Amino acid sequence: MKLIDRYIVKQFLLATLVSLAAFIVLFIAIDMMEKLDKFIDRKVPFMMVVDYYVNFTPQMISLVMTIFPSLRKMITLSRSEHSNASSSFFKPIPIKPSFLFTYNLVLAMAD
Q1: Which region holds residue 84: left if phi is over 0, alpha if psi is between -120 and 50, else beta?
Q2: What are the distances in angstroms from CA 14 to CA 9, 17, 45, 92, 102?
């Protein structure tokens, strides 16, 4: 595995773990604030609430994983751009306007 590949995989996994942990904490905090009055009214024991959130965490992860692919890419690329790591490995690719491609395609078909 090349050095750049290891770096990208490391950044990708780090972004995944950090953002997953942040989303889980945020999800639990929001859900707990919504259900706190129900827990207090029904006098639910603290360990039962903890057990509820431990068992509910896999479902939260499955809900969050739907947005994770794009989030991980954005975080990984922004971190590499911020540290100027990508500029040393990738050369800029000039992007032609799409109308030039269409123009060249029409000219090629006309011949």
Answers
A1: left
A2: 8, 5, 36, 26, 41
Q: Residue 44: left if φ>0, alpha if ψ -120 to 50, beta else—which one?
A: beta
Dist. CA 104–CA 22, nearest whole Å? 49
Would you say 81 and 48 are in contact if contact means Cβ atoms under 8 Å apart?
Answer: no
Handedness of CA 12, 18, 21, 25 (dihedral sign): negative
Chain segment 39-86, per-residue pLDDT in tens? 999 999 999 999 999 999 999 888 887 777 777 667 666 666 555 554
- Torsions phi, psi of 78, nearest 5? -70, -35
Q: Which of 111, 22, 104, 108 shows the shortest CA–CA distance to 71?
A: 22
User: Closest Cα partner for 19 from 89, 90, 78, 85?
Assistant: 78
